Amino acid sequence: MRRLWIVLLAVVVVVVSTSVWQGDYLFAAAYAVGGLALVWWTAPWRGGRTITHQEVLAMPESERPVVVYWRPGCGYCQRLRHVLGEDAGRATWVNIWQDEEAAAFVRSANDGNETVPTVVIDGIPHTNPDAETVRAGLTA
Q1: 7-16, pLDDT tens digit by residue?
Q2: Cis bond leading into 117, ω under 30°?
Q3: Which one is the CATH code of 53-139: 3.40.30.10, 3.40.50.300, 3.40.50.1820, 3.30.200.20?
Q4: What is the pTM of this model?
């Protein structure tokens, strides 16, 4: 899944090229815009560089009450960030597609699956918790 953006980019190139070759420039432009938005949504670098799992472990526990392990293209992660609103900035966000150790931690907490968001609140991992649980951890 980490390389999904490459496959999507190839599909976009083929579809846009075919549309241009057939003279459907309007459709080519629409496919390019929509397809590139989808590629960006699933790209591992989306969201910029985030903190690594090793950096999280190096932080004192008092500075990391809530750590959110997420990945680009995850609707549940996006929804959690949106529902938390301004409180989302108080959590520590770790992109598991940029950090293999973070991905390994998420797999260890979820029976071998990379299920995100995995949120660690006061040292206890929670798989896809509701926003109120996360907000409570942020305010504690």
Answers
A1: 888 998 999 9
A2: yes
A3: 3.40.30.10
A4: 0.74
